[in-house]
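So, could you explain this one?
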Amino acid sequence: MMAKASVYTDLFTTKSIVINEFTNSDSIPYTLNFAKTLSKPSLFDTITLLIENQLNSKVLEFDKICATSVSAIPYATNVATSYEKPICYITNTENDTTLQHNIKNIKIEGGLDIDDKILLIETVCNNDFYLENIIERIHKYGGSVVGIIIILNLCEGEYINLIKKNMNIITILNLYDVCNHLDTNNLIEVFYSEKIKFYCEKQTKININKLLTNTTNT
């Protein structure tokens, strides 16, 4: 818990998460730039250790680690080095991630062998079909996804479609805990903490409808 507490504080002090003080009820009450976690080496290292601790507690066999975004590459590289596993990463040029099964421009850099068991690492999951489409592309290449690490869970139902497909989701941090910590330690006012939680609850309802209404099991 002490490690996570320091992470929550550092996410705030490095401006990886910024509270938007003047917003209306429909606007996002925070700004997220997870790449800024790399500006503080101790924060980067601690998040990496939290990922590895989660993996050590799971019975999970994988052949390769795949970073699904540019911001995830440093974390995937660190974890891959610790586990002595090869790494690959995703490029996704001009692909509409709001469309399910849109895999045309998704490329896997670093290579993939048939029957490879892949562990995906993403910093933040968006409320679209990006990760689902990556999984589909990996299956097309003959590989399989055995787990998905999402470093920061936004608590907005952003990966509900993956849960429906029985994917193994491993979250490391979640936005509710960050807000509770910041509020408890007087880093933000309770009003802003509750405003973020209310927004997340509202988005969860929207995303459940958005991501599940037209989702097909493939």
Residues 52 and 83 are 9 Å apart (CA to CA). The longest strand covers residues 144-153.
